[in-house]
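So, who can interpret the following?
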Amino acid sequence: MAQMQQSQEAQLQQQAMMAERQKQMEQARLEVMRRILTPEARERLAKVRMAYPDVAAAVEDQLIQLLQMGRIQDQIDDNTLKAILRKVSPQKRDIKIERV
């Protein structure tokens, strides 16, 4: 019984550590975005994140990768972010329904 309780406590402690690590990674990610995006671009990315979280995550990953490679020199403005979003976001399909 005591061994089972110890294993549950260890699992809870491990989950807490993982949650803390994930929180720290998210904070670091937000700090990087704050540093490389203008306020307008950050606002646009936040709106995209609400509607399309997967697209926003892909853009953030791409921006972080470009920063690590040293390809981002200045802050990314709203127009540049729009261009990146156009390339990353899924293309809309024209759906045409014809009645017979």
